[in-house]
Amino acid sequence: MSVGIEKVGFYTAPYYIDMVDLAKARQQDPNKFLVGIGQKQQSVIPPSQDVVSMAANAATNILSDEDKQLIDMIIFGTETGIDNSKAASMYLQSLLGISDNARAFEIKQACYGATAGLQMAIDYITLHPDRKVIVVGADIARYGLNTSGEVTQGGGAVVMLISNQPKIIQFDGRSTFYSKNVMDFWRPGYTKEAKVDGHYSNDVYIDFFNRTFKQFLQKFDLTINDFSALTFHVPYPKMGIKALRSVAGEDDPSMESIWHEFHESIIYNSRVGNLYTGSLYLSLISLIANSDTLSAGDRIGMFSYGSGAQGEFFAGILQDFDNSKLKHAVDQIINNRNQLTISEYEAMYKQGLIDAANTANDLSGDSSRFVLKGRSDDKLIYRDQEMNIDF
């Protein structure tokens, strides 16, 4: 039986900064960000958006009424939780009008959460082929202003509809994984900003990729040449480049197509920034939306990584689908953002750190359908601006 991604949606907030502007403001050589990190732009998430509203905006244009009635599970992968108890999926279920006869829960393991959800969804559909599952990867990456991690911030959401009609990618359930308790990245409960041991995290990431990738090749009797493309968790493009270099030489003629497809896979990430749980899947979207050389039947490798740490390598088979609609939708979201000055970005960033029992967010600059209106008596209030309804 076939199982995989039937539909996929993406959203990021309507604001961004240019990395050249940030470099100049931080008195850095712009090439340190453009080349050393591989980042061109970075989405900036206003207080009017959080992981729930971004996921709702990513999902609303891909789910039909029939899909909503067939969805048995809403699996929300995030490390930017909006409540220490209540799952983000509960709000999302309400905003999207998904059937109440569904399981809805949240998964946390750094940037790996969406992949854990995807594997669970594949197993569920295998046993219940007439049903559907949505898997969300949504996050806001924050490291603080004027810090070494500032250039790797960003945010957004990817939503995947998993079913027995894999119109985009088909999975066969084969994967290899490796986990170990390490302190390369973490976010204490008292702060919205992450803590990271950058160099150590890079080393662990590459080690976990090599372990899981080589184990996959050995276990399933494959070589790197059996893949048409390799995609990665991309908190910033240079990290994916370093991982790919560890198994494929850039000057090796036999690896030319692998490198070509890789560069297609980081086009969107280089303009949006870090999505944490959604980063691998934005890279996958970038690949299939922008590549003009892939075709149905091609095997695409995927490396998922979550600090702390969990790594997994798996693969999917590209299906025969028209990528023009997906490309148009994502290009429109990214190209229509408003550029902020660095001072405007800093003010918006600081506003996003404020928590209070009662807040009212400025919605005037956010025309997205779903927004976070604020908080009343410690209760989050979301708004569907198209329907003029509060939740």
TrEMBL record:
The keyword Transferase applies. It is an enzyme of class 2 (transferase). The keyword Transferase applies. Keywords: Acyltransferase, Transferase. Its EC number is 2.3.3.10. This is Hydroxymethylglutaryl-CoA synthase.
